[in-house]
Amino acid sequence: MFQNKLEIAGRTFRSRLMIGTGKFPSNTVMKNALEASGAEIITVALRRVDIHNPEDNILSHIDTDKYLLLPNTSGARDAEEAVRLSRLARAAGCEPWVKLEVTPDPNYLLPDPVETYKAAEILVKDGFNVLPYINADPVLAKRLEDIGTVTVMPLGAPIGSNKGLKTVENIKIIIEQSQIPVVVDAGIGKISHACEAFELGADAVLVNTAIATAEDPVNMAKAFGLAVEAVCTAISAGQPAEQDKASASSPLTGFLRD
């Protein structure tokens, strides 16, 4: 049965919603949105962090006692750059967790499967818990699982597009084959998109643009948190199967047939 709590690399989280920290109108709005969402895993692009000035960057607005800070290698164009960024984050005091992103194409930001695999192999051997962002490629997802990544994170649609789950059939295969958590990442622009991911069988979702660029990011974060909690509770309750024929909710009783 589906469990409400999420487990990754032996660590348990109450919320199955992860949130990115880009695009918010201010760090204060970001901080308030994180709190409203109930999320416990927060991604931060390493290229946005000045590790030499920790008192005056985005990290100073994130309570690392409350959240798992998940550095991501957004902007890395190849495996070498992604590995370097990950090691810099660890050297700066971050836990050895990393959301691995290798996106050499500036127009669509699609992940490079070859360089992602290379980087993942190096980082896993280097002691990192690696959460790789990938195209919805079932073969690549299984190969990454085989080398020891702690999740796979297939995209629903290109980053920031808000188009929803355009890769449904491949995500289904990834979920069916996976023995590690599957996190649907990128393209989730509406509450309904997040719910669809869970109804497909995903273990978590990562949302950024839909929250950060909303007219009211704090309330949108709250809405996503409530929606994720609701759909996960519904799945845990055991949703009834679809039927091909109608079935009356109030069956006929004897006196109506007399």
Give a short overview.
The chain is of the alpha/beta class and 258 residues long. The protein contains nine helices and ten strands.
Can you describe this structure?
It is found in: Cytoplasm. It catalyses: [ThiS sulfur-carrier protein]-C-terminal-Gly-aminoethanethioate + 2-iminoacetate + 1-deoxy-D-xylulose 5-phosphate = [ThiS sulfur-carrier protein]-C-terminal Gly-Gly + 2-[(2R,5Z)-2-carboxy-4-methylthiazol-5(2H)-ylidene]ethyl phosphate + 2 H2O + H(+). Residues 7-251 form the Thiazole synthase ThiG domain. Belongs to the ThiG family. This protein has helices at 27-37, 79-91, 113-125, 138-147, 168-177, 191-200, 209-212, 217-237, 254-257; strands at 6-8, 11-13, 17-20, 41-45, 68-72, 97-100, 129-134, 153-154, 183-185, 204-207. The protein is an alpha/beta fold. The protein starts with 5 loop residues before the first strand and ends with a helix.
